[in-house]
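Researcher: Structure for this, please.
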Amino acid sequence: MKKFFTLILLFCFSIAFTNVTAQNSRPVVGEWKYKVAQAPYGYDTGVISLKEVEKKLTGEIIFDSGYKVKLQSVDFKNDTLRVGVYVDSEYVNILSRVKGKKLEGTVDSSMGKMDLTAEKLEKK
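Model: Predicted structure, token format:
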């Protein structure tokens, strides 16, 4: 009986952990209209599109010019979003904090660190 109770308890914890993990990415899934004032023209504004596929975050950046780049790495933990992406053969790191429907952070490239702000776009 003790083994049975232990197995049931372990099963319940694993289900609870899976639900918490799955819910953690929901605040960032969607489209974010971003702005990086110090970035070169054409790269300074656009949309970061994030989606969850097979319990992993993925997505792309769509610059206002229409140019799209696939995100190489996406990680979201404790309200912190980390993204890595190749833009014109250069690997760029994005680090931001989610504050409700806003993102605030930095973009780190060969040009140095630049401030990033973004607002989540509402689904129509």
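Researcher: Any notable elements?
Model: The first helix runs from residue 2 to 24. The first strand starts at residue 30 and ends at 35.
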